[in-house]
Amino acid sequence: MKKIFVFIILILGLAHTIQAQFRVGLKFGASSNNLLTSPITVHSVNDISDFKLSLAQANYGVHAGIFTQLKIMGFFVQPELMFNSNSSDYKISDLGKDPVSVIKRESYQNLDIPFLLGVKFGPLQLGAGPVGHVFLRSTSELFDVAGYSQKFKEFTYGYQGNIALVIGKLYIDVRYENNFSKFGDHIRFFGNQYQFDKSPARLIGSIGIAF
Description:
Helix content is 9%, strand content 64%. It is mainly beta and 211 residues long. The strands form two sheets. An eight-stranded antiparallel β-barrel has the order 1-4-5-6-7-9-10-13. A three-stranded antiparallel β-sheet has the order 8-11-12, with no helix packed on it.
């Protein structure tokens, strides 16, 4: 009977410890894309002249979602689900004798799934790990351009590295993200695929509150 009582006390103590080391919270923030790409030349079809497509500006994105964190001694595991929305402005330049440029905006929404592993030094956390992106939807002014179509991959992936400061229930996080796909690889003109020469990378800042 005494052994059973001691076993129950140990189980309750372990459950309390695990609960104390487990966090669930909400996060929101913004991201800044870091892209310097070379223009794409779209070749003529029938009576349409060649033109160039370049990235005029990768705009700030916003995100919000849920994070969880399990702390084990000085380490942590942190999976997340984040809704992410951003947009890019493209410049289309006619290559004729009288060049004319127009700006077209394209917006994207993804479900981001980061999974970080890291270490804790008091309130400071350092982590890294893979991130998956599930494509949700897109709206684009590029459909105004003759021959344009798009074909997004349903799932792409990359990696993130972060540094975070945890003060009580407040979570302040800064990350760098890079991806293994090329930026703009969804772009099609006249049935042909085009893409820029860089992978999409961004800086991500977030504030979270743990329950």
